[in-house]
Amino acid sequence: MIKYLSSLLVLMVLLLPGCKGGSAQGEKLAEVNGEVLYLDAFGSTLAEDGLASLSPEQKRRYTEDWVNLTLLAQAADEQKLDQDPALKERISYAQKKVKANALIAKRLQQTNISEDQLFSYFRIHQADFQQPMLAYRIQRIALPDKLSAENVFQQIKQGLDFVQAVRRYSTEDLRAQNGLMGFVEPFSADSLFWKAAEEIPINEAGLVSQNDAWYVFRYTETQESIHEPSFEDHRAEIKSRILKEKQNEIYLELLREIKSTNKQIYYY
User: Using CB atoms within 10 A of its CB, is residue 66 exposed (0-12), middle (13-18) or buried (19+)?
Assistant: First the structure.
């Protein structure tokens, strides 16, 4: 719980600067007492292709997190807690961290990772990528639109039995089989469900949009996939690992560059 809350606060610190005022354009995700979270502002806080990789459930969860945090922050402002000297120092420190991270991220974006680097990393760490991939036994409810899907999703979250929801709401023939798709493989035609299943615990509901249709889904069982993992399967993960390793290198490199031109540093 503490780890989740920390991650949430980090995410929200990144989001808030782009949410106030009227300069942001694009789709609105949420609004709280005049303070707006725009899709463009939200997407700008994520890594390249990060927004596209989010499942509808993840996007909804992060939006709800922003709403909750904004409500709490606004309540703190009403009580003038932001006038407390200690809190001012903590806010100042948080702003410095965001700016420092932005500087590191800007340098990181200029880092090119070649195919040779990716494949070399794969060979050196090949044992890390030999674990068999999982196939997920997917059960789904087909809905005509996003609003209907979110409504059914919330009902399941509040205790509606998933099978009952399939029989009551699903609009496809698969309803006769209680919505069971069988085991979905990572590179099958239904790989979108496989990718979304990776993001949620077993038997927990999620949301997926595919071919202009919306689905509430869950997986009820896993088994080893018949697909043998390869370099291509892990390309994105390998690139992410290399970038994380380079973050510390860039941090030290930036400090050396900046300190070499800043002489007004004193320790007391």
Answer: buried
Instruction: Please state whether the predicted TM-score (pTM) of the whole model is above 0.70.
Output: no
List the structure tokens of 44.
């700008």
Other CB atoms within 10 A of residue 142 CB: 21
> What's the CA gap between 59 and 40, in Å, rounded?
13
Among 117, 23, 110, 35, CA closest to 69: 35
Residue 21 in contact with residue 35, Cβ under 8 Å?
A: no
Where exactly does CATH 3.10.50.40 map onto the chain?
Answer: 128-224
At the top level of CATH, the class of 128-224 is: alpha beta
d(CA 169, CA 157): 15
Tell me the per-residue pLDDT of 160-198, one tens digit each, with 9 for 90 and over: 999 999 999 999 999 999 999 999 987 778 888 988 998
| Helical axes 85-109 vs 235-261, angle rounded to 10° | 110
- Specify the 3-state DSSP secondary structure of 2: helix
